[in-house]
Amino acid sequence: MRRVKLDLCYDGANYAGWQIQPQQPKVKTIQGELQRAIERVVCEKVEALGSGRTDAGVHALRQVAAFNTNSDLPPETLVKAINAFLPPDIRIWRAVDVSLKFHPIRDVLRKRYRYLVSDSRPSFPFFRNYAWNVFKPLDLDSMRAASERLVRTADFRAFQTLGSPRRTTVRTIYDVVVRRAPIQETLVFPAITDAGVRNDTGPEISSPSMIVFEVEADGFLYNMVRAIVGTLKLFGEKRRGYEDPARMTEIIDSCDRSLAGPTAPAWGLYMIDVVYP
């Protein structure tokens, strides 16, 4: 028996999220498609565990999964063979053998997500299903000032969708980035090293561009990144009551979801990195 670790990317637009839904066997999920493809190659039942359960419509530039198998096919052969049985909106781009002790969920140190917002007018048509198109220009400096208040260890219950119980709602956010990037750079793969992701902050340009939000933490609550982006948008609009970045601290300390902003749409969210020891 061996354990194989996969790095994969996918367009989540046509899927009901990562996780198989036993109560709805006909619903398409990333995990379901991946497991079926692997089983056709290794000729045995497998369970492909992912590092995180991305929601319906959410994409990944880098998701990590692992499965056990008795197959002796080398990793590079597994990549080619499994990809041959996957739909074109899911692709494995690396496979490596790892210890049987490796666990793609429990061993995670940090995860990083990217969210894309287009505030350009006219909007860029090719990204209409892959970014949140908003209808007025957002103030980058206001959003950056508010985002700095997020980098801390705290109870982030105010950014959790209600009805999603967790053992604890305390998380540590290590980094938040708010920047403008040329459109052609927004979906590039992050530079992966053993130490994790390295992102070029990019130049400040006028047009055509998109606002890129990135959040890195030791874990995320349900819809946490999307709620953070929805809240930062209110600061970017200078909505009444959200002019002062200190308001973000008040929202966090309140643990009250009703004080934070709306949940941003799923289609603008991308998992971009998973960091292991």
Keywords:
single chain; alpha+beta; 10-stranded mixed sheet; two-stranded antiparallel ribbon; 19% helix
Q: How would you describe what is shown here?
A:
By secondary structure, the protein is an alpha+beta fold. The protein contains five helices and twelve strands. The strands form two sheets. Strands 1, 2, 3, 4, 5, 6, 7, 8, 11 and 12 form a ten-stranded mixed beta sheet that branches. A hairpin with an 8-residue loop joins β2 and β3. It is globular, with a radius of gyration of 19 Å.
**Average predicted local confidence, pLDDT:** 91
Number of helices: 5
Helical content, roughly?
A: 10-25%
Largest sheet: 10 strands, mixed
Strand element count: 12
The outline comes out as globular
Q: What is the structural class?
A: alpha+beta
Q: Termini, distance in Å?
A: 23 Å
Percent range for β-strand residues: 25-35%
Low-confidence stretches: 192-206
Order of helices and strands: EHEEHEEEHEEEEEHHE
Rg value:
19 Å
